[in-house]
Write a structure and sequence with these properties.
Elements lengths: L1 H19 L2 H5 L2 E11 L2 E6 H9 L4 H4 L3 E11 L2 E10 L2 E12 L2 E11 L3
Parallel strand pairs: 1-6
Antiparallel strand pairs: 1-2, 3-4, 4-5, 5-6
Length: 121
């Protein structure tokens, strides 16, 4: 249960960083070698962490846009030093369903992989 709560804390920082557009804080929730894959508006999506973070750094944040933002944790599963979180993030014209893989490294939970799909509501 303690590990699940720790992952939920990381997810809270992850959500806040996306909302505020805080690229440095967002990067801190990931392992530096993390990769991101999925589909957005029906198009393949594949990025390194640095490309993703640069995109966040160079876009208007949801907070600054004044547009609605909603993030929720659907589920968190943990086995020993690995975890998977299923989350939903609605922002701009996107409705993301995300699967975030976590690993506990040096007693810190970090996102090691992000899989996303933009789905119709």
């Amino acid at each position: 249960m303690e590990d699940s709560l720790a992952i939920r804390e990381v997810l809270g920082r992850y959500f806040n960083s996306i909302y505020e557009g805080d690229a440095d804080a967002l990067a801190d929730t990931f392992h530096p070698g993390a990769l991101l894959f999925g589909d957005v508006k029906g198009q393949p999506y594949a990025k390194t962490l640095s490309v993703y973070i640069d995109g966040v750094r160079n876009r208007q944040s949801p907070e600054d846009s004044g547009k609605p933002f909603h993030a929720e944790i659907v589920a968190v599963d943990v086995v020993n030093s690995i975890g998977v979180a299923t989350v939903k993030v609605k922002m701009y014209d996107f409705n993301y369903h995300e699967f975030l893989s976590f690993h506990r490294i040096d007693d810190q939970w970090v996102i090691v992989n992000k899989m996303i799909s933009d789905v119709a509501e």
